[in-house]
Structures are given as structure tokens and as C-alpha cells.
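Continuing the batch. This is chain 6 of the set; chains 1 through 5 are on the previous pages. Same settings as before, nothing changed between runs. Recording input and output for traceability.
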Amino acid sequence: MEITFDIRTAYLITALTSLICAAMLFASRRLHRPSTAGVAWSSGGLGLIGLSMLGFALRGWLPDFVTYQMANTAGPLGVAMLYESTRRLCMARPMPWL
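Output for chain 6:
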């Protein structure tokens, strides 16, 4: 029995996982008061990465402008937000460009 691996399915699973994690982080951001800002930034970053992966998964079904521009912009922005959330959770000074 041959099993074929579809990369779009992996992107879709990654997108759904990231969006669920972002929603859970956003819902639980006030459980620990000193880390509220860091968790909120992390939630936003995971949400953007989830949207980026969703754009990768839906290439060919949605217009190219939406999938290429949105996915290629949201991904790096999400990673930058995760970097900033790590800085805020470690109580480091926030980056001046964010």
C-alpha cells in the first residue's frame, strides 16, 4: 500500500495548530500578570504564522495576490512578533522598531 505525502496537508495542519495555540494563549494571557504583554505578543505572532501557513496551503485555490503577498508578509512578521514576545517574557527592553 502506497501512502503519498501531500505538503499542502502538512501546511494546513500547521496552520490549524498555530491558530488554535494562538487562541489559547490569547484566552489565558491574564493568568500571570507580569507576562501579559509577552503572551499577547506571542499570541499575535502565532496567529500571523497560522495565517501564513493557511496561505501556503490554499495556493491554487485562492487568488495569487492573496496567497503569495499575504503568506510571504505574515510569516516574517509573525516570527518578529515571537522574537519580541520572548524579549518581553525575559524582561528585556522592547525593540525600538516594534
